[in-house]
């Protein structure tokens, strides 16, 4: 097979892989959509993606009502209640630590 003919499909595949959105970018976007300031959302997304599995991130994404509600209007108790409903203590710990740490950091 001719090398240029082989390289073109491989290059297209590589470019399409680069075009996919990273889990961190998706988490950051969802946090911003929920009303969290972009710098804090970026910090939280980085920490959450490093500490949670993809399965846990998907479970967190399904958190009822957060997609339509600005988290700035939620009490800490309400947020903790919703996180605990996922029945995964690691998710609760990671999200709260990321939120507190990133909010303090700026």
Automatic annotation (TrEMBL):
Superkingdom of source: Bacteria
Record keywords, A-Z: Signal
Signal peptide: 1-19
Protein name: Lipoprotein
Species per Swiss-Prot/TrEMBL record: Rhizorhabdus dicambivorans
Lineage: Bacteria, Pseudomonadati, Pseudomonadota, Alphaproteobacteria, Sphingomonadales
